[in-house]
Specification:
Layout (H helix, E strand, L loop, with lengths): L3 E2 L2 E2 L3 E8 L2 E5 L9 E6 L3 E9 L3 H12 L10 E5 L1 H6 L3 E12 L5 E10 L3 H8 L29 H19 L5
Antiparallel strand pairs: 1-2, 1-7, 3-6, 4-5, 6-9, 7-8, 8-9
């Protein structure tokens, strides 16, 4: 299947896509041989695309290199692309940026270049879910002293008002519905 970026096909033929996801595991063993570790979260998916570009069409190679080098006008970071590809669609990967390497090598027994590019998922489902989770209790700021309870007294530090509680519940339910429940954005 052809890989589409912003609705336009990547140059080349025989597109082969490999998606890699990884769990970040922090080693807690120190200098011992223990296997103690802690869960550090899910890393964004890496999408590796391998394709062939005929040596008789060097303009396609130049086009691919141009896509790889495109940058955001404001931040200078690699450009953000919407991706259309069957494995990416099945895994809920919709937006990517070029990352790591653009590798070009002669293909064995063919008059073509074998090209490999790597893209990284932008704002993955686990990343979006992580931003919705409340900060640990120690990191949460206390309620402003201007907040009043219904009896007119100042609210205790850390006590949430009615509106804050409602918004917190709505945020949690929306996250479960749209991201944690498997539905796409």
């Amino acid at each position: 299947m052809t890989v589409l970026l912003n609705g336009r096909p990547l140059p080349g033929l025989d597109h082969r896509v490999t998606v890699t996801e990884q769990i970040d595991r922090k080693d807690l063993s120190g200098d011992t041989s223990a296997s103690a570790g802690s869960h550090g979260g899910w890393k964004p998916a890496l999408v590796s695309v391998r394709l062939l570009i005929g040596m008789e069409t060097p303009a396609e190679l130049a086009t691919l290199r141009g896509l790889y080098h495109q940058a955001d006008q404001v931040t200078g970071a690699p450009a953000l692309w919407s991706i259309t590809e069957s494995a990416c669609g099945a895994l809920g990967i919709h937006r990517v940026r070029f990352t790591d390497t653009l590798r070009v090598a002669p293909a064995d027994r063919q008059q073509a270049w074998e090209v490999t590019v790597t893209l990284i998922e932008e704002k993955s489902v686990p990343e979006r879910a992580e931003t919705r989770r409340p900060a640990p209790a120690a990191a949460q700021p206390s309620a402003p002293s201007a907040l009043q309870t219904t009896s007119g007294q100042a609210a205790a530090a850390g006590e949430q008002g009615f509106i804050e509680r409602v918004l917190s519940v709505l945020n949690e339910q929306a996250g479960k519905l749209f991201f944690d429940g498997g539905a796409g954005p």
